[in-house]
Specification:
Shape: globular
CATH class: Alpha Beta
Largest sheet: 8 strands, parallel, barrel
Structural class: alpha/beta
Number of domains: 1
CATH topology: TIM Barrel
Strand content: 5-15%
Number of strands: 10
Distance between the termini: 23 Å
Helix content: 25-40%
Number of helices: 13
């Protein structure tokens, strides 16, 4: 397994990490993801560790805390072998203060996560989203206090816009507080808007990407192909997934999958393996979070590493997946002399 530095920190993470959204299976969105209990989760953790994948990503809201509980039991007795990433910000309970990035909510959620995970520290703690109603200074001073207290080792965010992240980094720099070194962001061959602003920002400010949904909400599993019926009964077809996930035009999806199939014929690799390997060659990407409902899916995703697409194959996939950018990003492409593409 290859390990990379996470952003501008000295913290090394594996290029693949295991997401635990499939642990627990609470009704609704997470039930559609997966329903792994302790036994199956422990087996998946065993397989991941055997392959050198020692980073496990969770969140307080995954199956209403059940995901963290199951992960904690799956790693019991081997905490020193694993790295834990978890998140908070979204609503966790009915009270008016059970949401957001306030001092009240963050301290409460970190303490809750520590208890559910059965540990006394979190390796990487990330805000799950930006809270525009809490002063950035309050959020960052709280996180810095938690780092100083030894309850958190490194800080990151998820789903921030460019200005959200840049404002936060500027405040951290102003007061000498711990900086965000990771951005857990959606990025895939059929969702490349991360490249427009967040990737250049990540390069400039040394913030590493932790990629979520690298297969575009299961569209790049190989089940969706031109001329074949759209699969029924998959998690993508559930109403919860439809409501939460980014829409993708079917013709565009087929265009990308056609290109992946050409590369698959050249490499002997599967559609998911090619899609993940492409991500691992992109600037700023520190780790790609893979999910697995079962052992078979996990082993297939683990086959994404240990080899590389050729420059010609990368170029073919780039061309097939390119889309028209929103303003001002399309305009900046015309000024490549001073706004070169990230490398």
């Amino acid at each position: 397994m290859e390990y990379r530095l996470l952003g501008g920190s000295g913290f090394k993470v594996p290029v693949l990490s295991l997401g635990t959204g499939t642990f627990g299976g609470a009704p609704g969105l997470f039930e559609a993801f997966g329903t792994s209990g302790v036994d199956e989760a422990t087996r998946l953790v065993d397989i991941a560790l055997e392959a050198g994948v020692n980073l496990f990503d969770s969140a307080d809201i995954y199956s209403q805390g059940r995901s963290e509980e199951i992960l904690g039991k799956a790693i019991a007795g081997r905490r020193d072998q694993v790295l834990i990433s978890t998140k908070a910000t979204f609503r966790f309970g009915e009270g008016p203060n059970n949401v957001g990035s306030s001092r009240h909510h963050l301290i409460r959620q970190v303490e809750g996560s520590l208890k559910r995970l059965g540990t006394d520290y979190i390796d990487l703690f990330q805000l799950h989203g930006f809270d525009a109603q809490t002063p950035v200074e309050e959020t960052l001073s709280t996180l810095n206090d938690l780092v100083t207290a030894g309850k958190i080792r490194y800080l990151g965010v998820s789903n921030f816009s460019g200005w959200h992240l840049m404002k936060s980094l500027a405040v951290s720099d102003r007061y000498g507080w711990s900086r965000y070194v990771a951005h857990q962001a959606y990025y895939s061959l059929i969702g490349r808007s991360y490249e427009w602003e967040l990737m250049p920002l990540g390069l400039d400010q040394k913030v590493g990407a932790m990629v979520w949904s690298p297969l575009g909400w299961a569209r790049l599993t190989g089940k969706y192909r031109r001329g074949q019926p759209v699969p029924q009964g998959t998690r993508l077809e559930s109403q919860a997934a439809v409501d939460a996930g980014p829409p993708v035009d079917l013709e565009y999806l087929y265009q990308v999958v056609d290109a992946i199939d050409e590369v698959a014929a050249e490499t002997g690799k599967t559609v998911p393996q090619i899609a993940i390997n492409w991500l691992l060659q992109r600037p700023t990407v520190s780790s790609v979070i893979i999910g697995a409902r079962n052992e078979e899916q996990l082993r297939q995703n683990l086959g994404s590493v240990g080899w590389n697409l050729t420059p010609a194959q990368v170029a073919k996939l780039d061309k097939a997946s390119e889309t028209t950018r929103a303003y001002p990003y399309f305009h900046q492409l015309g000024f490549a002399e001073r706004n070169p593409k990230p490398v």
